[in-house]
Amino acid sequence: MFSEFVMTPPNDQYLLVGSDLELNCTYQPAGTPSHSSPEPITPSTLGPKYDTFNIHNMSMKMNSQVITAGEFVRYVNEATLGLVILNATAAHSGMYTCYYNGEFKTAKKVVVAGKISYIV
Fold first, then answer.
1. Do the strands 58-62 and 13-16 form a parallel or antiparallel pair, or are they unpaired?
2. Which pLDDT band holds residue 48 (cuts at 50, 70, 90)?
């Protein structure tokens, strides 16, 4: 079993303008069930490639542009980098990607749209 990075929520996200969203990129050591919250990171739970895992080496990009650190929440004990989007606008739509040490790990699409109006 290999260590991996996952993004949550698990599916691409389709939001209405004004919605809030938190995208999380989480390092899951080998043997961590993907359906549960990861265990706190300790030397015994790290995979061999990430035996010196450092959450500060995780980053996210939107449409290939680095996202500034001010928009992030780092959950050190869970090895999770969370991007908080409050009051989303159409400008938040795009492909969000997770990186560790500059290496691509996983991606998630976010689409933000206005209300649909029907003319009767």
1. unpaired
2. very low
pTM above 0.85, yes or no: no
SS3 76: helix
- Cα angle 11-30-21, degrees, rounded to a multiple of 5: 25
Whole-number Å distance between alpha carbons of 57 and 80: 11
CB under 8 Å to 81, separation ≥6 — which residues?
24, 25, 26, 55, 58, 59, 60, 72, 73, 74, 75, 98
CATH superfamily name and code, 4-113: Immunoglobulins (2.60.40.10)
Contact (Cβ atoms closer than 8 angstroms) between residue 86 and residue 20: yes
In angstroms, the CA 67 to CA 54 distance is 18
Q: Could you give the angle at the alpha carbon of 8 between the alpha carbons of 101 and 44, nearest 5°?
A: 55
